[in-house]
Amino acid sequence: MNHQAVTGAQHTVDLDFESFFREEHPRVFRLAYLLTGDRAEAADIAQEAMARVLERWDQVRTMGSPGGYLVRVAVHLHHRRLRRLRLRPREEIAGRAAVADGDPAAVAATRTDVMRVLLSLPAGQRQALVLTEWLGLDSAEAGRTLGIRPSSVRARVHRARSVFRDELGADYA
Amino acid sequence: MPDIRELLEREVAPLAPPEAWERVQRRAEQRRRRRRLGAAIVAVVVAVLGTAGVWLVANGLRERGPQPGSSGWDDGRIVYECPDPTTPAGQAIRPTLCIMRPDGSDRHTIVPTPSPGEAVPTSMSSPAWSPDGARLAFRASWDAACDRCFDLYVMDADGSNLRRVTVGGLNPIDPAWSPDGSWIAFDTGRGGGIMKVHPDGAGLTRLDPGVGANESDWWPSWSPDGTRIAFTRVDTATFGNDLLVMDADGRGARVAVSGSDVGGGQVYQPAWSPDGRLIAFAARGDGHHVSIWGWDAARALEGDPTNHPWQITASEPGNDMGPVWIDGGAQVAFIHEAGGRIVLEAVRVDRGGVTGAGGASPGPVPEGSPYRTTLATGFTGGYDQIPSAEYSFRPPPGGAAGACPEPGPAELVSCSTALQRAGIEDSGPQGASIDVRLVHGAIHPDGSVDPDDDRPVWAVTYRDVAASAGGATPQPARIDWEVDVDASSGAFLSEGVARTGARTG
Questions:
Q1: What pLDDT is recorded for position B185?
Q2: What is the ipTM of this complex?
Q3: Of the ranges A79-88, A91-100, B456-465, which one carries the lowest mean pLDDT score?
Q4: Cα Rg for chain A, rounded, in angstroms?
Q5: Quick check: B333 and B323 in contact, CB under 8 A?
Q6: What part of B 37-96 touches A (C-beta under 8 Å)?
Q7: Residues in chain A closer than 8 A to B22 (CB atoms)
Q8: Under an 8 A CB cutoff, do A150 and B173 touch?
Q9: Which pLDDT band, with edges at 50, 70 and 90, does A111 fall under?
Q10: Which residues contact residue B234 at a Cβ distance below 8 angstroms, ignoring those fewer than 6 apart?
Q11: Does residue A162 register a pLDDT over 60?
Q12: Comparing C-alpha atoms, which of A116, A114, A106, A145 is closest to residue A128?
């Protein structure tokens, strides 16, 4: 590992980060997958988020919840990705989607109903739903992560759950 | 059946990320190098521009003369949630309150000044202007380290005279001032109901004790006569939403608009028009997008059985939410959210539907429609810059005549400038009447507008100001000023020209 070559003080920091990395990297990757529905994008977001945490590890490691900071960075990166996609020409987006996902019909056939419904949600609702339902944040925590207030989180989750109920049946959501 | 958490967990449990340790190390090192390089470049640029900046301040600003809004005219303000720059490093950015002009200029953060012995509140959000435009009600935490220590506060718009109105962590959200400013209604995260309290903290009253175990009441909105409150009741068991109206003392709650009235969806955020006739609200119809709807409260109160809500905007592919009546009730402003971009827009609304320069819209107005006016952009908030949809318009100052049209959309700065160009430097005495509006079409001498000439112009009608200022009996004098403007930027393309009459005094 790279950390074996550095000095003693940094060595300690790197060891801490390595533990953090091993525990949190799979989780942030899965979080990014739920937000994007794309493994390549999820891997990229997870790596970039981890790199940003490592860059500021001296400060992050003293936080009450370094994992919470990592989640905020990942959500921020997801949001930036959405903005970049919106600014690109439609042809480029379509081409990228084709490369990343393959034939749309095949994708539709292979994606589960759950992911299909999840990805049909507006990004804000999807983020709120994943943060609260999968990650287990309460509306205040999710609101701080998303930069919106708790009632807005509740409203978004409410709408998202309604969509799940409508699409998958009344026993869901 | 599994719940959503289990469904999502099943999707991701088998997934393992690709090996990334080496890549993460390289990316982090690249970012460190870029940051060091960027800091060096900034230092050089600052050193070079330091001298030039002095020249710009000394010469550039002086040549530009008076800035919009500096003439004494209050052209409206928007208060909204924004990132708190004092958030300690490494912590999630907390919200605070900012103010800007309706065109997005002159943004600044409000710094509260608490009374002696009182802690500075943090995480300020959910702001609402008082009816006189002097004070703000908002939610804030008295303990930065506590997630559940939110109470209701009021302060002057400059941050002075801060007062904590409720005590005990009621978690108040969505404060709404009564029209006379004597009460503030809000919904509470503790118990899920609507309460009201005097701005001095007295008279705290629960208004909806009859709310069911699975119900929660949100988003109170006072009728302009102060006798009723509209709100949304959420059934947390069935996820149904209804818009209800109750008397201001909490009695007589009845459903005004149900979810089935909007295509089976939910209703949110009612807003009563200034004349009391209409209620605008946000609703998710049978699609998955939130739009703005209207409901004729007056017809309903008259018992008209044919009264149904009607859709004002078609929001897809985004969402329209947070309706607020502006411009004296002539327009509804709302947040349009699409792909994470937040824009404050407005449409002209009357009982017959959406109106515009080309007449009434045949149906709900979609994104990009000419019936929709962009008021402000660049709402930001939170760590990841996801904009906040929280905002509140300041009412006209004193409700006196002589104000620019309220709120004066993106055009408002131009409104102020129009008045300066017309030689009108202050609001004039009471009794003066000034009407400033953006119209499309040349103005005829009789005041009518030629629709065949669709140039955007400011029409300034100015009555009796000089005569009143001189103590004389107001005379029916009138001036219309026509100024060519760029409708998108509000920039003036020509000097104002008097079209009719002559300015008195």
A1: 95
A2: 0.80
A3: A91-100
A4: 18
A5: yes
A6: 81, 83, 89-95
A7: 2
A8: yes
A9: low
A10: A158, B215, B216, B217, B218, B240, B241, B266
A11: yes
A12: A145
